Amino acid sequence: MSIMGILANKAFMRFYTGFIISEIGTKMFYLSIFWFVQEKTQEPSYTAWLGLAITIPQLFMFIFGVFADRYNRRKIMIITDICSALILLMITTYTYVIEFSILFIAVMFSLLNICNNIFFPTSRAFMPSTLPEEKLVLGNSLFATGTQISTIIASTIGAFLLSKVNIYLFFIFNTITFLFSAFNLFLLRFVLPKESVNKTVQPKNRKKEKKLFAVKQFINDVVDGFRVIKSSKILLFMIPGVFFTNIFFVTFIYLTPGWSQKILHSGPEGYSLLELGLGIGTFLGAFASGWFSKFINIKRGQILAFLFQSTIVLFPVFPILIVNVFILFLYGIGSGLANAYTMTLIQHIIPDHQRGRAFGTLMSIMGGVVPIGTFICGLLVNYIGLVGVFWMSGIVCSIGALILALTFKFIPIKEQDNKNLLTQVE
Fold it and tell me: Measured between alpha carbons, how far is 340 from 328 in angstroms, rounded to an integer?
């Protein structure tokens, strides 16, 4: 099945279309809410605290992933989409009609990201139900590419309209996209292969679980998620490198509004262009991952990805807009490659009934350090300044990327077919 064959797959395309539309709205909202807070407060530290509202829910993804293995994944995604739309309506109504409150926005933003963090492992665990196993690399490449296309579209719109259009229109648009995604997932039931519907819930347990929530079994499933990660040598050894990378890359996400305004003097246009550079790079990396898989295995692809990411150390060295955009572009290429390959790695080596908890647990471990980094950066910006935080973050992120490259260099991985596609870890 070529890429055209995948695009002709009704189940996959129904799922993919709803995902893309929702992602565009989400990226536009994220772009606008961070600039909204920066403009209202004129303090970069506030955008760091807002970032904390995004990252704290990641600590609990090991729990969210279990839901994806125990209940109907399609229904879980519909519920989270509807809840996200309602939360966005509350944020829009309160801030527009009553008052601007950073506390209210942070609390509601946390709830929104709880929904997002339930949706993520569920969607990644669900995706193999729509495609043949041999096309998972290409499918993950399309998903990662779609995410970055959404970022590119949102950032381009932001560069032109963020300072010219009422920012609440960005909020409302995201509300509509969540509802569209929920509706698309509802229609998905009519085109899913029969054997893929709710494979994760064991029929013999349904009646029992409806009558009584099996707390003990649920805890066992949570523990099993950590056990699955521990049993995989490559996933286990990735954690130290991801720790160093994730703990300070938050600087390049949540403090860029302040960097654009105070260092580059480029306002919302500069902020949008920085996001655009990262988005285009990640798009190209994700797109290339499907093509690269024909020639190099995931081991070599990951090494290449993390070498690209190590260039982030140069970001604070050249505080010039065009140079900063290019450096984020290079980092994005590495991120796109790494994301697509890591998703495929998990989907290949983890059984279907454990896939949701594996995604959730790994994202919880990897993302669990992000709140720490966000908290540290929020404090340090008041002591060593914005430039100092970017210098420190660039160095630490680069070290983490090099550690990850060395991990894939020395941890043995089997190649199981003549296409060099990774399917098993030794």
Answer: 18
